[in-house]
Amino acid sequence: MTKAIWVLIILVVGYVGYLLFQQWDKARLEHDGLKKEEAAALVSGDSLPGMPQQFETGYRAAKTKSASVFQDWFKQNEQYLSDPRKAWIELELCKAMIRENPTEAKKIYTSVKGRVPPSSPVYDKVKELEKTFGP
Predict the structure, then answer these.
(1) One domain for residues 71 and 86
(2) Rounded to whole angstroms, what are the CA distances from 114 to 29, 97, 132?
(3) By the 8 A CB rule, do 132 and 112 touch?
(4) Are residues 64 and 90 in the same domain?
């Protein structure tokens, strides 16, 4: 009888330990997820360096209009832009062009993907658009 009681105690302790581990793992995953969301929220196109301030209003105006206007603005001002902001703007241009000119959008995306290293703040956006444009 005492052996049965010890087996029961060991099973209960094991089960309680398992439940505690599940709660700890759930809390850890939620905590890690919040850190990733915070890091992603910190990276926005507006906060990236690489575009002179005087181009900001023209960029915003072109972006709100059609994809062709946005593309014309980009071609006109591309020489004044540098990475990582240039890559961010090109990815925004890809998103704007996907319906009107998908082949050109994919070409731009491939160009950006080829030059953006994994350490870049734009890399997460490249990976996000990979679902749309393929590997």
Answers:
(1) yes
(2) 32, 19, 16
(3) no
(4) yes
Residue 83: CB atoms within 10 Å: 18
* Whole-number Å distance between alpha carbons of 47 and 61: 18
Which pLDDT tens digit goes with each residue over 22-60?
998 888 877 776 666 555 545 666 777 778 888 888 888
What is the three-class DSSP state of 48?
coil
* Tens digits of residue pLDDT in 9-30: 998 889 998 989 899 888 887 7
Considering the domain architecture, whether residues 64 and 129 belong to the same structural domain is answered as yes
Tokens linked to 59? 């960029």
Residues 70 and 129 both lie in one domain: yes
Residues 53 and 37 occupy one common structural domain = no
Same structural domain, 122 and 64: yes
Instruction: Supply the range of the domain harboring residue 26.
Output: 1-42
Q: Can you tell me the distance from the alpha carbon of 101 to that of 36, in angstroms, rounded to the nearest whole number?
A: 33
**pTM score above 0.85:** no
Q: Which residues are CB-contacts of 85 (< 8 A; sequence separation ≥ 6)?
A: 45, 48, 49, 50, 51
CB 40 within 8 A of CB 128: no
